[in-house]
């Protein structure tokens, strides 16, 4: 009898053990998200960079999960405030990303960066009426003629910040998608939009549809840094609230007379407009005289223009001087015009090496530019010469091989050292680590 009791006791004990351990397993993998999230996401209260760690919000975070569809988002908890779905691979968004029969009154932020998104259907986004920030950075979105989806943003009735940094496919000429973008803005009623990010989109001209931003009647900030613009060439008199334009690191050698006139006109009834033109390849020859004189008297605040560098100029001695130093600007002889290519290489080198010296913005404009998902894509974009890329690649390969060799010979030791930590990282990865990241700041505007 006694042995039987012990026997039964042991069985019960084993059963309990089994149950509790499987419960523990489930806890370790469930991450508090609905089942369809397959344990790959994190759901819960968290601080995030989007509001500068302002307060904890109910966050659903699917980062680098390997998902190749968004069907689990139909089960998104209704109390979600922040939806992060980044680093996955979803070439095409289906007609309903979120469940049309649920209400997402609290959903404020959607980040769908870096998902290889190519197509967004006209009806992809419903129930996003309270979303204030939409981030679509680093995708391959195609909004060109035949695939035009004029209604893709039409349900974002309260959108205030739209991030489309490096968002569009490179297969299509930027002037074409700017036309499509104008359609999208026209159809969408984004009447609360304050901040528009269009950095790194190979935009070389807006001139073909100058009024592209005019439907965004509350627009305050236009971010066009790291494009290929050669002038300021779009209409702004339709934007009464506009107060900041970012044109950093473009291809502007001087502003044209038209551009300066447009800007002065804008200032007639207004007191404040700031423009950032840092790190453009300015040319200090006779053709820039008007531009420099204008800078000295305009009401537009061209931020720290006195420190801009002449990347080229005539006489040659102007090259390398700052705008406040340059006095004498003459017209280059005909013989110089053949050297354009040489000049451009010099321009690139100079622009890059000076990036660090230039004082950063000191005004309260939007500085959150979204996390950079690509290696080596921090700080300056687009201006790397192939030599630098070559050297960097070589160093990268070299260092990697060295590390691998060391790792091979020390593999046992490394394993012992890393294993416990690795376990810890994979199990407990959560929201505590973000403070250590290079967190872009967003100033409140
Ligand atoms: C989302 O999850 C990723 C990886 O799990 C983490 O690195 C990131 O910091 C999280 N983001 C937020 C805002 O919690
Ligand atoms: C979506 O992805 C999940 C996991 O990757 C997969 O199990 C599921 O079948 C996919 N659903 C569709 C409709 O493709
Ligand atoms: C885009 O088109 C314009 C004219 O239509 C052309 O000048 C420009 O070189 C094109 N850009 C690219 C990257 O194809
Ligand atoms: C400036 O304001 C005045 C009076 O409010 C108006 O008549 C004039 O047209 C405005 N000028 C511009 C350029 O907007
Ligand atoms: C700016 O204007 C002042 C006088 O109004 C003049 O003394 C100064 O040299 C000008 N600076 C430049 C860079 O043109």
Automatic annotation (TrEMBL):
The keyword Transmembrane applies. The chain crosses the membrane at residues 387-409. Keywords: Leucine-rich repeat, Membrane, Repeat, Signal, Transmembrane, Transmembrane helix. Gene3D superfamilies: Ribonuclease Inhibitor (3.80.10.10). Residues 1-24 form the signal peptide. GO terms for cellular component: membrane. It comes from the Eukaryota. It comes from Halocaridina rubra. This is Trophoblast glycoprotein. InterPro entries: Leu-rich_rpt, Leu-rich_rpt_typical-subtyp, LRR_dom_sf, Wnt_signaling_inhibitor. The keyword Lipid biosynthesis does not apply. SMART domains: LRR_TYP.
């Amino acid at each position: 009898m006694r042995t039987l009791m012990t026997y039964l006791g042991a069985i019960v004990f084993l059963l309990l053990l089994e149950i509790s351990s499987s419960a523990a397993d489930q806890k370790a993998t469930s991450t508090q998200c609905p089942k369809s999230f397959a344990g790959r996401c994190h759901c819960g209260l968290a601080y995030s960079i989007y509001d500068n760690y302002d307060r904890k919000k109910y966050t659903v975070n699917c980062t680098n999960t390997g998902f190749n569809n968004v069907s689990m988002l139909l089960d998104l908890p209704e109390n979600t405030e922040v939806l992060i779905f980044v680093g996955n691979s979803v070439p095409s968004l289906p007609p309903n990303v979120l469940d049309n029969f649920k209400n997402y009154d609290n959903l404020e932020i959607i980040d769908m960066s870096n998902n290889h998104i190519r197509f967004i259907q006209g009806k992809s986004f419903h129930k996003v009426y309270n979303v204030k920030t939409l981030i679509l950075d680093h995708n391959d979105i195609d909004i060109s003629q035949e695939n035009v989806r004029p209604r893709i943003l039409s349900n974002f009735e309260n959108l205030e910040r739209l991030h489309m940094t490096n968002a569009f496919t490179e297969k299509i000429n930027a002037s074409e998608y700017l036309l499509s973008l104008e359609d999208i803005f026209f159809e969408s009623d984004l009447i609360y939009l304050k901040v528009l990010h269009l950095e790194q989109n190979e935009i070389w001209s807006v001139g073909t549809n100058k009024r592209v931003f005019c439907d965004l009647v509350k627009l305050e900030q236009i971010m066009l840094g790291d494009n290929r613009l050669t002038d300021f060439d779009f209409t702004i008199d339709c934007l009464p609230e506009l107060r900041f334009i970012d044109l950093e690191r473009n291809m502007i050698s001087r502003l044209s007379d038209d551009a300066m006139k447009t800007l002065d006109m804008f200032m007639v009834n207004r007191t404040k407009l700031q423009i950032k033109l840092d790190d453009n390849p300015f040319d200090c020859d006779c053709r820039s005289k008007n531009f420099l004189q204008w800078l000295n008297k305009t009401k537009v605040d061209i931020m720290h223009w006195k420190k801009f560098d002449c990347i080229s100029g005539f006489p040659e001695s102007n090259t390398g001087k700052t705008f406040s130093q340059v006095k004498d600007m003459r017209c280059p002889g005909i013989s110089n015009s053949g050297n354009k290519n040489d000049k451009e290489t010099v321009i690139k080198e100079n622009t890059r090496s000076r990036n660090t010296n230039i004082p950063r913005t000191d005004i309260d404009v939007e500085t959150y530019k979204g996390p950079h998902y690509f290696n080596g894509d921090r700080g300056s974009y687009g201006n790397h010469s192939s030599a630098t890329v070559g050297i960097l690649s070589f160093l990268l390969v070299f260092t990697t091989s060295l590390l691998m060799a060391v790792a091979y010979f020390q593999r046992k030791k490394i394993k012992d050292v890393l294993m416990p930590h690795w376990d810890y990282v994979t199990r407990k990865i959560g929201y505590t680590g973000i403070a250590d990241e290079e967190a872009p700041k967003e100033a409140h505007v």
